[in-house]
Description:
The structure is a homodimer. By secondary structure, chain A is an all-alpha fold. In chain A, 73% of the residues lie in helices and 0% in strands. The mean pLDDT of chain A is 94. Chains A and B meet through α8, α9, α10, α11 and α12 of A and α8, α9, α10, α11 and α12 of B.
Amino acid sequence: MTGYIKGMPQVSVKEKLVKYAEEVFRQRGFDGTSVQDITDAAGVPKGSFYNHFDSKQSLAAEIVRRYYQATDLSDLVASGAPLDRLRAHFLKQIKRTEQTGFAYGCLLGTFAAEVTTAGEKVKAAVHEGLASWTAAVAAVIAEAQARGEISSRYSPQDLATYMIDAFEGTALRIKVTGDPAILTHFLDITLSVLLL
Amino acid sequence: MTGYIKGMPQVSVKEKLVKYAEEVFRQRGFDGTSVQDITDAAGVPKGSFYNHFDSKQSLAAEIVRRYYQATDLSDLVASGAPLDRLRAHFLKQIKRTEQTGFAYGCLLGTFAAEVTTAGEKVKAAVHEGLASWTAAVAAVIAEAQARGEISSRYSPQDLATYMIDAFEGTALRIKVTGDPAILTHFLDITLSVLLL
């Protein structure tokens, strides 16, 4: 057992860069963040950055991929009533946004806003993140439609897109107003009106 | 009449800065735009910038104010059925976004995403822009509720907020996907499901 202490893994420079850059990007956006800001936050020499990433774009794309891969979809694939699972899932997303700071919004939304300058790698990663999240939500909406619990007038894909875009727009407004109460309205209106 | 030519007003340096900066900000965002980018686009000396604006923040706030003051609200205050007026209004917003480039989204949304670094003046201007737009949409929703054309389960303010946030989130996704068709779904779903 004692060997574990001696052998404890060091956090690599690369992992430090990924860990601290996420917070800096969230707070300052893509263009508002310099490589120097990231290496300062990570406490590593600026020169070490390029041993691990060929550009700020590549690191940002990596962070976006990890962000959506870390999104907890467990409620969506659980058993139980589809609308309850959607509620549980979005409550978790609201909690996640609260924990990282409502003032900084959703990381996917932040990068989405800056894809014109953040470049193709970041754009592709955000696209994939939105697409996979939308597909997971759409699958639950499809179940609800199959069970006759909500209208089938619109496709699961269209409803899931609308729902997620409304969430992103709500998170965006909160960056400006500082009032997270509208996320509760978002969820109530979505589940009792949009998915009717 | 000939005097008019001699007396034709020159476009002032300040107006040139405002005019060209809007396009640069739209395409590159707040942090992605430098004062030099703006003066280059306007074709004026860099030094002239500070004769008219004390900072990039002040110019950005001015542009946001002009942007929402230029928003065409005529359909909202026209006569006719409330839902038809909402449709006409949002079709105009979609057209406006198309004309300035779907790839660059809505200017309010672009600045909203960057308020953490763009500072308090920009934040206040975006806040005011979202609030005035939401109030104008809410007034029409209130009319529809008073006429019994849509449910009064949620307040006009909450429904207008949801609708505008869904629009902003949709415009944000289009920056990433490049597919503006979802704006049509946004409008159809909003008017036939959300406002039911």
